[in-house]
Amino acid sequence: MNNKRIRVKYSKGYLASLIGHLDTIREILRGMRRAAWQFEFTAGFNLTVKYSSTPALSLSFLSAAEYIDLRVKERPGEFKETEFKNSLAEGLQIIKINELFSSELPINKKVKGFRYEIRSKDRTEIVQTGAVKSVELVKKGKDYIILDTFKRDGGIKNPRKSIKEGNYSIKKLSCIF
Fold first, then answer.
1. CA neighbours within 13 Å on the CB side: how many for 60?
2. Are 144 and 118 spatial neighbours (Cβ–Cβ below 8 Å)?
3. Nearest Cα to 70, choosing from 92, 91, 97, 31?
4. CA gap 28, 45 in Å, rounded
5. pLDDT band at 68; cut points 50, 70, 90
6. Which CATH code for domain 4-105?
7. Which of 46, 64, 159, 161 is deepest in the core (most CB within 10 A)?
8. Contact 170, 116 (CB under 8 A)
9. Residue ranges of the chain that CATH labels 3.30.70.580
């Protein structure tokens, strides 16, 4: 078989931030099927599409960098890719679709951490608790901070646990490879 691995980079805006991780992946796969993409499936009784993705994003988090790796039989033309991008739910936006080399690691093994921007909605200062050791402060402004979270003890910690309670918006800016 001459199957190709592709990596889809997408963002989640406000409305899409209210959709759970598995539903987001289903929405992307549904859009690709509408645009006539042909996937590689797992073997067995219940066939499912072979994919790997970045770790699940908490509900209400915005994101500028989410990834999903898929195996496809062939990549359709530019028109079909445009059709796919336009068929997604409001708030989901496809940024880039790349073909991967066979030696490249799947996205879930490649990611070492994430960069988040946390903004105060009521313009108050954000106070770090320092409770999570795998979180590093990158930049601090009057009503925002930028944090890097890294894999430690088997997982990537939620940035909410590293700040005191308050009225915040959290956006994942990028993945750290």
1. 8
2. yes
3. 97
4. 23
5. very high
6. 3.30.70.580
7. 159
8. yes
9. 4-105
β-sheet bridge partners, residue 133 = none
Place of tokens 């490249």: 104
Write the DSSP assignment of 111-129 as a string of letters: --EEEEEEEETT-PPP-B-
Non-local (6+) Cβ contacts of 57 within 8 A are 12, 17, 21, 63, 66, 172
- The pLDDT tens digits of the residues spanning 13-44 come to 989 989 999 999 999 999 988 888 888 888 88
Pair of tokens at residue 34: 């509408």
Six-digit token pair at 159? 């940035």
Among residues 38, 50, 52, 157, the alpha carbon closest in space to that of 105 is found at 52
In tens, the pLDDT along 42-52 reads 888 888 888 99
* Pairwise CA distance, residues 149 & 51, whole Å: 24
Cα separation, 70 vs 40, whole angstroms? 8
State the Cα–Cα distance between residues 129 and 137, nearest whole angstrom.
11
Total-model pTM: 0.82
pLDDT of residue 133: 60
pLDDT category of residue 117 using cuts at 50, 70 and 90 = confident
| Cα three-residue angle 156-157-163, rounded to 5 degrees | 150
